[in-house]
Amino acid sequence: MASLFRRIKGGQSTTAVEDAADQTSISTTSLPSHPRQQQSRGRKDDPLGLVALHEPAERTLDIVFIHGLGGTSKRTWCYGRDLDYLWPQLWLPQELPTARILTFGYNADFSSRKDKSVSSITDFARDLLYCMKYGENTHERLGQVPIVVIAHSMGGLVFKKAFIQGHNNDEFHGIVSMIKAVLFLATPHHGTDLAKTLNRVLSTSFFGHSPKEYIAELDERSRTINELNENFRQHAVKLRIFSFYETLETELKVRPVMIVEKASAVIGYADEIAKPLNANHHTVCKFSSPEDPNYTSVVSALRDIYDSLEPPPSSDFRAISDLLGIAGPPDEDIATGLSARTEGTCHGFLKNKEVIDWLRPGSSQVLWVHSPPGSGKSVTCAFLTEHLLQAERHCSYFFFRYKQLGKQSSDDMLRSLAYQLALQIPEFRRGLAELFSSGARLANENAGALWKKAFLDIFATFKTDNDLYWVIDGLDECGSAREALRFLLGLDVFRSHVHVLVFSRHHAEIQQTFHQARAKITSVDIPLPNNSDDIRLAVTEDMDSLVSSNGFKGETINEITARSQQSFLWARLVTKNMLACHREDQIKALLTSTPDGMSQLYDGMIDNISNLTDPRDKSVAKTLLAWAMYAKTPITLDELSEVYPTSLGGIIDRSYAISQLCGQFVVLDTTGRLTLLHHSAREYLKQAKHQPHVMDEKSAGEEMTRKCLDALCDKRLRQKINTLKVPKFLPYASTLWAAHLEDCSGPSMELARFLDGPYPLPWIHYLAMSGRLSQLYNASRVLYNHAEALRKSGDGNSHTLALVDGWATDLMRIAAKYGRHLSESPTTVYTCIPALCPSSSMIHQKFSNSPAMTLSVSGLTVDKWDDCIARLSCAPGRALRLAVSPSAFAVVSDVPKGTVTIRETGLFQETKSLGLGEHIWAIAFNKSGTLFACYTFSKSFVWKTADWSLVLSVDNPRQERTIEFTFDEADTLMSVSEQSRVYSISTAPTSEEPRCWERLDQALLDEPNVPAGTWLATPSCVALSYDCTQMAVAYRNFPLSIWSMNPPEVTARLRRNPARGKRPSMPYTGDTKVVWHRSGEILLGISGRVFKWFPVDNLYEELEGHEEHNAHGIQCSPSGRVFATTDGAGLIRIYDTASMSLMYQMGCGGRISQVCFASNSTRLYDLRKEYCNVWEPECVVRLADALPEATNNKDNSASWAQPDSDAKTVALREPAQSEPDSKTKLPLAVINPGIASRELVACVDEGGSISLYSPEKDKTYQTGKSLTRIMLQQMFWCPARMILAHSKANGAPAVASAVIDSATDQVQLTTTYDGGPSPQSRGQTRELLLNPTGTRLLVSGANKAQLLSLPDGEVLGEEPPTYGTPGKWDQYPSKPNYCLCFTGLIIDIFTWLSLQLQGSIYIETLEADTDATKIDAILDNHCPRLLLLRTATIYNPLPPIAKFNPYPSLNPWRQQCYTSSASSQMVAWFL
Length: 1471
Prior knowledge:
Distance between the termini: 55 Å
Radius of gyration: 37 Å
Number of strands: 66
Largest sheet: 8 strands, mixed
Structural class: alpha+beta
Helix content: 25-40%
């Protein structure tokens, strides 16, 4: 109750209660200078929301301050409300130098007469949670490092409620799990009797005050206080709690009062630390100086917390969280288990011989503990985990939960174990951080990839000093128990000692897998030890409140224990029913009528539901049972009350009512979520379909889909999101409506209403804001399959089908093309993105003309989505080589020679440029993308992609060109040369120097039967398998052969056996190209026709019916599901690997020199001429999304596999019906844009045809002028004067004026200057520039630049390259009489009058090596006061011939702003 603080008023002090009382008698003609009005101004000055008070250079901790009732974000913490005493900002940073300090403000001003707020503590808590996740726009976010909360008075209750809500909501769980400690300053945990007094004063005020709900909640008898204490206890197990309480009374006008008594300010937990402060309620959070004893006490507690946390390095910590996509270990599962445990139970488990042996360090072993349902396995698991953690063992744990997102699959388990291991083991943490730095992301990887990249490639490479303990609960609830167990039993590959303990029900499949593993790992399985003593203790505690004689209690306890059959669940249910009895004869009758065993007990429970008489109760029971059984993730009653406000909103005692109405099948768990009593109850209820109050899965799916869509079809949803008042049900509805639609035929009316209205945009807005944009892929796949189902059934009308089809395509394309932009600025879905989408798309048709649009696009010629999502130019050179990793791709170009450009796969921005200076034969990334290698004419190089440090530089075998160059799984670099020699070199760190290529066994590729001759004896193609254990080799006129690398021998030769009576389709002319399937069991290749070969069985299949497709390139996807071929016409065809059937084709003209799949199999990259194209074909995206191994159950996951469902299939249209050959020409290139909308823009297409476009009229004018083999830099358009300058084929410049013929809409070009042949002294023309008046032409040649007057062509001035190389020229933006020349990092200023140098400017950049940094591009910019430049750094590992510093000492211009990436910066200079 921060507002009960004493406020400074003149020379006296008052409290909030006095303030409210005073308002009944003060004069309405108070002077403006009244102190109360000054207070009001101070209150308004303090910001609401989350505000940073201090941000350190290096951050290891976040501290959040929360004020109380009537307080504000800053002045609450100031002595005398004077900001000069704001101790969290002014003093605390000196005590904790690496702590970031924030304060949270909310509107708790109860004394405002204008405020008619009905806010509650729950509303304030929701606001706090929302601000913690979405209230920061910087890179530093809450949840990245440990958090400590300091809360005063009611602020402590707001924190407690937020802490509970955060644990109950997957959206905020990651943040609240990082809260490690809380300091309560005079918080009324048990309420205060002054709350009722304050509300009474407000109700009787003559000036419009009204009682507040949040004040009523502070009453010591309020339901809010009781619920907070009950629920907070369940989540505060691992929270360090300090409670400071006041010891001085606060003076009111009536009498001095202790606002919050000690009994209320102390919670009473065993581990709580309580400390008195010599202060009243007002001064308990305000200090007069750093020497104030109260301040010293609070800071001492903070310092103790600070020292005990010992967080890992913040950068590594954030990297691991981002890499794995999780924020912390599953602490809530331990808390849930421990909250259900009775003191004294489970200790007998530790005395079991097999458990003692398992705990003994020194060797790896696996223990499986199994028992029937309800016997207490999860509680025992939580107890054991807590025991290991308290003993400071390196323990990691995971609790499988049926159908709970993030807790039901093998990859969920591996991600959690990896995260916990990284917190414990520095070597593993560094390895994962390095993997993250390379660009890898494991959040959406399948279990196999996770095991390989995190555990085999990193964890298995070192040995820990301490034994490691992994505890796994509920393996039988995992969607793929056998797969999970295979990973847990694979301990023999680790050097560290790992002990694994698994709890589950007894399953034959699990037992079989355990027995099979005993040959390689010590594994023991035992039943859960007899738990009768534990059941007796639990029943005894439950019956403690029963008013009866000890003898009767003892007899009852003995009977329940004896009949329980070691089932805790049965004993607890019977005891709960018994406590509702009032007489001993009722208890005896209950025990007599209660059957033994859970199945019979369930029969009685379902009869209780059938006996309900009120129709409203029956409806509520049916609803709650359905959501408890079929919800995709457990849902809270608060969320469900939004969906069913009438039937659920009026329930008084929720927990009791739910239990009684649902026959005790449904309970509220410790997180407040609806869940079934036990997993066995779900199995029982699914068999009870004949019961009218139990929905079948299809009906439940339709109901839940309808409710989710209803929540999204809220016309005020956008406003609620913008004002941070997100409905509680929205996270569930927005992410899981499509999952429910997938389970049923779907409510077509609701779906059409959602897709046909304005509702998709707020939905996408929320997904982008909450980091769940991958759900767009999910929804796209579901809508696509839903449309196919509607077509087959004939249920959908044409309008509905058009809506579903259109949005199915739009959602996938929006995620692919604009996902990164939406993540950075979610509101662009309203303002920009619809206008940028194709004109036939649903989002463009419905929203491009919306009043919210701030972007207008005219001249849009693309009417449908293109599979090509990016086209990147390598001009002026050709694109020669291509390599792809999970997070980046590299392209080799030949101008300058030996240039490698690396780009990231998100926005395709350049991250690194390597200049090697000689021809590059091959490039490759390793499997994880952490290493990059180049094979040049003379040397081989290897870099770490995390920081691009050079790992290896070795000479190549003399005069041997590599024809196969790749990494194996151990990061050893492999090379096969034209001379049929195989080499390898290790990239692992070693002290042996220098390293060199080592030739493998000379018997490899020793083929004496190969025809002699240089041309014939050279392999026509070579392909190493994924693991580099096999090699496929083909020679001209010789069969394709498979070699084993160790031992070096031929294991198979291709023998194409024709059908009887037929000759082989093709002779052995030498295979053009062969590639391996990732399994290592299949080869795909081209030998006249495309073929597939199984070497082990010599099964051979050719592609039939596509003879016209003269394939010359082939690539198999990493998933192995599809492969792609390329031809000389620029077509890419995608085939299903299993059936060899054509699925898709696409192209844009031009011969393709190379094609590669992305590591996730959803994209293709190809090289043609000077371009690299990036494709995302609809068919491969949908196919990859349907792969069962790619499923992931996180809230931002890419799919939602059902644990016990079959793999989803994806419907693929025939290519001729839906996606014909798309020979889209390259888009127009703008010569140079105009500034005003009325100015014409000059464009040139791929064929060299020049046209003019009017943005104002949205009209294109053809010039009839065509220029071939001319680069954009050799053309210049002056829109103000309608003048075009260009270079002719002989290099001579020419200038033409343009006039539009209004009658024909044609542009007449009249040559006004035609220069003769380019003089040799100037050199080849590189760039042209016209002055703003069109009277001067600057011609930049290879040797010098010349200024010509127009139209006579007189040379007015010359300028040789000042710093050795020609620069780039541009107009001075704000001064029409000057032009600029950019060379390296120097800008020279020249006059247009005579090309006289007026001055020079040196640009400062972030790059340390300025010799290698240059201005790479002058970017378009329409602000006359800014110049936007892009710099690039070329890395050259070869030693330079000479090195000098050509730059004189110059004064730099004032730098306005810059952004930087790994090797480039964009700099804005203020002119």
